[in-house]
């Protein structure tokens, strides 16, 4: 009873899908880019990096100080007669190129953040392309499973009639009923996968449609190969990280140069009401801390970023090559599987069904024909899905900040 309920639920889901509004790949990409939390988070981080880059160019604020001396003491310093009041303004002067080095780091980090935003958008687009294709494939597999279940029902009915008239032994009816049970189980499984694929795409694009359906893709054109020495998005990211690491070396070296603080002001003597100007300058003595450890750490980080850039270049070339090869292989499979062999397999099933009913073919021959057709259709569905995955991988591998 429970199994029948699952089958009924699957059939109900398929019936609802028949009237579901289809979403095209372009619409899914646009909706996902607008609502995706990962893109929104990357955008916020890029805005934060932009604000930090603006702040990095700011100079130190001047300091205003007020000092009151020689009051409320004893003897000649009782009360306020000997009070001395000093109003001074001091300014820390950055030396060693600290401001320019700090600005270079912030600018590189800003560039990295905006490249990360572009990478998040490219990753999301790849995931949506794959999820859209997987939903389309799940729909095709579910419809194929439904067709097979319908054929199995008809086959079981025919086998029962043939057994009743004595043309086939009871074993044939048992075999047909076993095929029906397998087909119904596969139908339930395929529709479960359909619901999961539908939910995954809906989450990616922020859709609340419970009957989300994937429109058949128009067939995106594969991008052409990047010109030689053209960096991919991943290489641009690694280069931006390297630039930031190199800029941090400048900051570490600049921090080793002590800053000068200059001050000037006016002092007023309470007893005689006289005033005088004061001036001063202070500078730390770099005897103990010359920031050597931070300089060496920044240099090591820079070497690591250089290696990461080389690795990113190797991975980018390999990923592009592999994706293009997989796309070519998938296109070839689709061309072969969608050719005359599919129509021939369908015709073989039609003839075997007629022949079985007329007593010219056995049940096993009909089952073999149906299995061959199912295998061919399933292989075509998988080939189309592999083509979509390879195309999504290639588009992502060749993404650049400027496109």
From TrEMBL:
Entry's family note: Belongs to the outer membrane factor (OMF) (TC 1.B.17) family.
Signal peptide bounds: 1-20
Domain of life: Bacteria
Keywords per UniProt: Signal
Protein's UniProt name: TolC family protein
Pfam family, one: OEP
Signal listed as a keyword: yes
Signal among keywords: yes
InterPro entries listed in its UniProt record: MdtP/NodT-like, OMP_efflux
């Amino acid at each position: 009873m429970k199994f029948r309920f699952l089958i009924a639920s699957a059939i109900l889901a398929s019936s609802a899908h028949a009237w579901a509004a289809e979403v095209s790949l372009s619409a899914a990409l646009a909706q996902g880019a607008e609502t995706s939390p990962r893109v929104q988070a990357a955008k916020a981080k890029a805005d934060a990096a932009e604000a930090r880059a603006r702040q990095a160019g700011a100079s130190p604020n001047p300091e205003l100080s007020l000092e009151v001396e020689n009051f409320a003491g004893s003897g000649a310093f009782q009360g306020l007669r000997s009070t001395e009041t000093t109003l001074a303004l001091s300014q820390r002067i950055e030396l060693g190129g600290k401001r320019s080095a700090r600005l270079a780091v912030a600018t590189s980090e800003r560039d990295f953040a905006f490249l990360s935003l572009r990478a998040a958008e490219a990753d999301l687009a790849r995931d949506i392309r794959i999820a859209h294709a997987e939903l389309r494939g799940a729909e095709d597999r579910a419809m194929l499973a439904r067709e097979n279940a319908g054929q199995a029902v008809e086959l079981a009915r025919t086998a029962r009639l043939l057994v009743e008239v004595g043309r086939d032994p009871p074993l044939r009816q048992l075999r047909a009923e076993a095929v029906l049970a397998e087909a119904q189980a596969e139908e339930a499984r395929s529709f479960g996968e359909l619901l999961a694929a539908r939910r995954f795409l809906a989450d990616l694009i922020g859709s609340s449609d419970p009957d989300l359906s994937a429109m058949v893709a128009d067939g995106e054109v594969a991008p052409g190969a990047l010109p030689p020495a053209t960096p991919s998005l991943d290489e641009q990211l690694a280069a931006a990280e390297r630039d930031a690491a190199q800029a941090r070396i400048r900051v570490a070296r600049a921090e080793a140069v002590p800053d000068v603080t200059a001050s000037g002001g006016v002092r007023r003597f309470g007893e005689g009401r006289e005033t005088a100007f004061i001036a001063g300058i202070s500078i730390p003595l770099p005897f103990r801390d010359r920031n050597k450890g931070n300089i060496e750490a920044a240099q090591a980080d820079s070497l690591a970023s250089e290696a990461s850039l080389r690795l990113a270049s190797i991975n980018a070339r390999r990923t592009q090559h592999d994706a293009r090869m997989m796309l070519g292989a998938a296109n070839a499979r689709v061309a072969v599987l969608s050719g005359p062999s599919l129509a021939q397999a369908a015709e073989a099933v039609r003839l075997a069904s007629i022949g079985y009913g007329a007593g010219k073919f056995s049940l096993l021959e009909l089952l073999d024909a149906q299995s061959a057709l199912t295998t061919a259709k399933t292989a075509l569905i998988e080939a189309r899905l592999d083509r979509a995955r390879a195309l999504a991988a290639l588009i992502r591998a060749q993404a650049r900040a400027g496109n």
